[in-house]
Amino acid sequence: EVYFKNLSKQKQKEVMEKNGNNHKLRVCVATCNRADYSKLAPIMFGIKAEPQFFELDVVVLGSHLIDDYGNTYRMIEQDDFDIHTRLHTIVRGEDEAAMVESVGLALVKLPDVLNRLKPDIMIVHGDRFDALALATSAALMNIRILHIEGGEVSGTIDDSIRHAITKLAHYHVCCTRSAEQHLIAMCEDHDRILLAGCPSYDKLLSAKNKDYMSIIHMWLGEDVKTRDYIVALQHPVTTDIKHSIKMFELTLDALISFNKRTLVLFPNVDAGNKEMVRVMRKKGIEHHPNFRAVKHVPFDQFIQLVAHAGCMIGNSSCGVREVGAFGTPVINLGTRQTGRETGENVLHVRDADTQDKILHALQLQFGKQYPCSKIYGDGNAVPRILKFLKSINLKEPLQKKFCFPPVKDNISQDIDHILETQSALAVDLGGTNLRVAIVSMKGEIVKKYTQLNPKTYEDRLELILKMCIEAASEAVNVNCRILGVGISTGGRVNPREGIVLHSTKLIQEWSSVDLRTPISDALHLPVWVDNDGNCAALAERKFGHGKGVENFVTLITGTGIGGGIVHQHELIHGSSFCAAELGHIVVSLDGPECLCGSQGCIEAYASGIALQREAKKLHDEDLLLVEGMSVKEEEVVSAAHLIEAAKLGNTKADSVLRTAGTALGLGVVNILHTMNPSLVILSGVLASHYVNTVKDMINRQALSSVKTVDVVVSNLADPALLGAASLVLDYTTRRIY
C-alpha cells in the first residue's frame, strides 16, 4: 500500500514538474467574512493535507476582524490554520461611501502583503467588495488568480462585482453548468474553467447525520424540537437600501405573528446594515421570548441548524444554495438572489407591501420536507480543485486570452481538467436480477452492476442503496457527474410520488413502496420512478427508433408483456397510472389463464412464462425434442427450448409460436384502432420471433387506414436501464415529463 501511495505521489510530482511547478505551489487564500470562509475552508484543508505539493498562506481581512460581526477570524484559528496577515480594511459607516473607502483602504494595504508573500496563485471567492480589492491588487501585481463561484447570477451590485473579478481572474472554478455557460459567454478561456461544484457541499453532504439536538438546544433553547423552528438571515440590498429595510421590517412582523422560535442572524457589513439593526432593536427582537438574535454561528453548527429547521427565511445565498442539500423549505425574499438556480424547496416572495404575503408564505412552507437538491455540488469539489491546481502550468504566459465569439460548439473541458460526462444512475428491478448502471447523456452504459433481486422488501431496498452508493462513488473515478437516479420496476407506479402502488407476482413484497424518499435522502440526489414498460418507451424516445416520432407504441416481449405509449411526444400514464398495460389486452374470452387472474390476455399467450408453460406440456408428452436437441435431466425446460425446436422443424413448437405471435398481433391491431400510432416498436428477447407474424396480422385484420404503420424491432441493447436513465436525463435537459 505504501509503495503504491508513493508511486502515485511521484506521478503527480512528475505532472507538476512537466507544468513548470518543480517547486511547491505557493497558494494564498484570502478570506473576508464568515460566508466566504465556509466555501474556502474545505479547499484550505485540502491544500494543507498535501504539503508535498502546496504551501498555504492565509490572509484575513474585512468583517472577520470586527467585533460587531463576531470576530470570526477566531474560527479560522480554531480550524488550526496559521494566519499570516490580518488586515483591518473596513471603514465604519455602513453606507455606500464606506464600502468604497473600504475597497480603497484594502488596495492601499494589500501590495505590501503580496510583495512579502510572493504567491504563485491567489484564491479569491465570490462577489464581495473586499474580494474585488483582492483581485485588483493581485492582477496588477502579476499574480495568478483562481476565482471560486464565478459565472453565477443574482440580483444586486454583487453581479457586477462578481463579473469584474471574472475578468481579472486567470482560472475559474464554477458550481453549476449554467455558471460555466455564462463564463464561456463572457469570453473566458474554456480550458481554464473547471466545473467542480460548490466546495461547501463537500462538508454539507456528510453533515446531516451527526448529533444535532445539542446544537439546536444551545442556540434556540432546551424546549425546541426539530422542524419546529425558523432560521432567519436577511442582508441589505445595496442598490435599493430603503426597500430592503422595509422588507426586513415586514419580515420581522410576520415572524412575530407566526409565533415560532426563530434564530435571527445579524446582517452583513453592506451599506444599510446599521438601519436593519435599528429595526431589530426597535421591535425588541433581542429580548423577545420567541427570538434568539446572534452575530455569528460557526459553520458546522449552522449546517445542523438549517438542516433540521422547519423553514429558513431571508435573502442570503445560503438559502438558495446550501440549504437545498437538505430539502429544508426556504422563503427567498426580495431581489437579492434573482437569477440564482434554485431547487423546488425555494418559494420566492419578490415583493411584499404588507406582512400578510410573507406570513402566508410561512404558512405554506413551514414544516415541509422536499427532496434533496444537488444543483450546486455532489460532494467532490475539493479533489477536483486540487487536481486543477496541480495542472496549472506556471510557464504559460501570464497575460489572459479571451475567446471572443463565435463560441465553440464543444463546451467541454480538456481531459486533464477533469472532463466529466453528465450521467444518470439507472436502476432496473427485474423479476430475477437487480441492476444498477451509470448511463451517459448519449446513452452509453459506462459501468454496470448486477445482483440477484432479493425476495424481501428490506433486503431489496438495502441492496438498492448499497449498489447506488457504490456506483455514485465510482462515477467520480470515471469522470461522470450524476444528475439523478431513475428506477424502472415492474407493476403499477405513481411517478409523481415515486411510489410502487402494487407489483406483479414476479417481484414479491413490492406494494405501496416509497422508493423516492429513502434513496433521495441517502444519495442527496433527485429520484424518478416508473413502470418498466413506460421506461422502455422513454428509452426509444431518447435513444432508439422513437426519437423525433410524435406518436408511437413500444411493446416489451420478455418474461411478461408490457409496454408504453407516447402520444404527441409525451408519455401517457392514465388517470390511475394504469395506461399501457398492453400485456393484459384480452384477445380471447376462453384463452389460457393469465397471472393477473383474467383469461385470454396477450401475456397468457406470448410472454416467456406462457411459452415455457407450453414447452413443458410438449416435453411431458415427448413432443418437444427433435433431432439435434437434448435437455439434461436437471435442466429446466424453457421458452428457449421451444424456439430451438421450432427452428429445427418441430411443427408443434412452431404452431405454439405462431399462436403466440397471432395473439400479440391481434393486440397490436387493437392498439392501432385505439391510439393510431405511426410506429410500433417490439422490444425484448422475443421480439424478433414475433415481428413477421404481427405484420401479417395487421395486414389481415387492421383497417386500411392504419395498415401503413411501421413495425420494427428495437435496436437498443438494454431498454430498461436506458429508460430509467431517460427519466433523469430528459428532466435535466428540460424535456417535459
UniProtKB/TrEMBL annotation:
List residues binding an N-acyl-D-mannosamine.
492, 504, 532, 581, 584, 603
What is catalysed by this protein? UDP-N-acetyl-alpha-D-glucosamine + H2O = aldehydo-N-acetyl-D-mannosamine + UDP + H(+); an N-acyl-D-mannosamine + ATP = an N-acyl-D-mannosamine 6-phosphate + ADP + H(+)
Q: Name one GO cellular component term.
A: cytosol
Q: In which pathway does it act?
A: Amino-sugar metabolism; N-acetylneuraminate biosynthesis
Q: Domain (UDP-N-acetylglucosamine 2-epimerase): give its ranges.
A: 53-390
Its EC number is: 2.7.1.60, 3.2.1.183
- Alphabetized UniProt keyword annotations: Allosteric enzyme, ATP-binding, Cytoplasm, Hydrolase, Kinase, Metal-binding, Multifunctional enzyme, Nucleotide-binding, Phosphoprotein, Transferase, Zinc
Specify the protein name. Bifunctional UDP-N-acetylglucosamine 2-epimerase/N-acetylmannosamine kinase
Q: Which organism is it from?
A: Geococcyx californianus
